[in-house]
Design goal:
Length: 255
């Protein structure tokens, strides 16, 4: 929606819209206009407006840049821009704080268009993740694991087949030769494979947590009634739902 306001030394100015999101706190806002001016060396001839975020949790100043279009000023961009980095799951933070720090730095670099820098960084983040994951499983081998190249570490120390297979491919995509072997793969593929590594590690950890909180009942026998759960053994003669349906049919005919 167009906004009209007066700027000292310029007079009445019309802009096509105000920014609808604070570039610092990433909150949906209608910012307040503080001041502005014409000119600058980067956006020559543009209008620069100083806004302030109205959110009490932010209250930061930022700049909005506009260019002249059909009698009013059209929005171009805002500065500064703080990249909103994704929140990583708690289990990842517990396993590897180094991975979390590196991943978020790479995410910011990618958002700024530094794709090659981000690519090398994601590769290093993967190394932190896998080695810290292995150390969490084999703390007595920490020194050897940290000194071992990533590819060798995966082959030697990673026991889970899924983590190992996906981890290999993440390493391949992070190597220079991978671009010749898979010319259609890019940074998105590397990130996707790293995400798969995370998911397999998460599955392993969640499974362990479930088994810890739900251990087998002492002296329990498979198939026995579970008190208070409404769970009953299934007739093995029919198997699955068929066995249940068969039992129900027999009961009905006898009645």
């Amino acid at each position: 929606m167009p906004s009209v306001f007066n700027l000292a030394g310029i007079g009445q100015v019309t802009i096509d819209r105000r920014p609808d999101m604070c570039p610092v706190c990433h909150t949906r806002i209608t910012p307040n206009v503080m001041t502005g001016g014409i000119g600058g060396r980067v956006y020559d001839g543009s209008l620069t407006v100083v806004f302030i975020c109205p959110s009490d949790a932010c209250r930061e100043y930022f700049l909005g840049y506009y260019e002249k279009r059909n009698g009013q000023y059209g929005f171009l961009t805002c500065r500064p821009k703080e990249t909103a980095v994704p929140t990583l799951p708690d289990f990842v933070v517990r396993i590897s704080a180094n991975y979390c720090d590196m991943y978020q730095e790479c995410y910011r670099a990618e958002a700024e268009g530094l794709r090659q820098v981000a690519g090398f960084g994601y590769r290093k983040a993967l190394e932190f993740l896998i080695k810290d994951y292995v150390v969490s499983r084999r703390p007595e081998d920490r020194a050897a694991i940290e000194a071992t190249p990533l590819a060798t570490c995966i082959e030697t120390y990673v026991g889970d087949a899924n983590v190992r297979d996906v981890g290999r491919r993440a390493v391949w995509l992070g190597q220079d030769g991978a671009q010749r072997a898979w010319t259609e793969k890019d940074l998105r593929d590397l990130k996707s494979v790293i995400e798969l590594v995370l998911r397999w590690i998460e599955t392993e950890y969640l499974t362990e947590e479930l088994l810890k909180t739900m251990p087998p009942a002492p002296g329990g026998v498979a198939g026995e009634d579970r008190v208070g759960t409404g769970m009953h053994p299934v007739d093995s003669s029919g198997g699955g739902l068929g066995g249940i349906r068969g039992a129900a049919a027999a009961s009905s005919s006898s009645a």
